[in-house]
Amino acid sequence: xxxxxxxxxxxxxxxxxxxxxxxxxxxxxxxxxxxxxxxxxxxxxxxxxxxxxxxxxxxxxxxxxxxxxxxxxxxxxxxxxxxxxxxxxxxxxxxxxxxxxxxxxxxxxxxxxxxxxxxxxxxxxxxxxxxxxxxxxxxxxxxxxxxxxxxxxxxxxxxxxxxxxxxxxxxxxxxxxxxxxxxxxxxxxxxxxxxxxxxxxxxxxxxxxxxxxxxxxxxxxxxxxxxxxxxxxxxxxxxxxxxxxxxxxx
Length: 250
Hints:
The chain is 40% helix and 22% strand. With 250 residues, the protein is of the alpha/beta class. The protein has a five-stranded mixed sheet, sandwiched between helices. It is globular, with a radius of gyration of 22 Å. The N and C termini lie far apart (63 Å).
């Protein structure tokens, strides 16, 4: 008898379940918007965070930082934003869409990327100016594109890319698939892609450093949890994961 549930009780239980926000362990879902270059690292960190916070589900949305910032300003629900540069984060803070001040938790620099084996023999930034070399770059409005513009400008190299992509992941994908002979992506992207691509170091890349800020958002439904996640990223687990992926320290 104790194991059975009458029809009326079952109907009541289902009705209550349907009316509850019931979802996600009493609403304990944390939504994190993060730059595409953080995909692998934040996926690992989210899993670790969930393991340490019973009943919490971390939902990750990756993309170009400028696209994510635009979504936030248009009202997309999110608790945490991690951008690939401070300029893009500034669009969120200036619109009063953040809680408190962003904190820089990692740095990154650019590297030339080619398909495996570097078939076009690209050895320097100057080689990217060769019209016979199919180059893809990040669009200037996204963090990797802004850094690319500065780096190429400082080197005095003019490049006519075959396409300008909205995220560093898109550049990497086109090069890895052989659609392009070369591109400029972050060091961490080259390392994360493994044998799928070949990296070519840029001697002066350290002169253009992207600083990655993170912040809880003003309209966060999980403000306390957002703060805990940010502390986790800044803490020992986050530093270890970021370093393993090739990110630098602030």
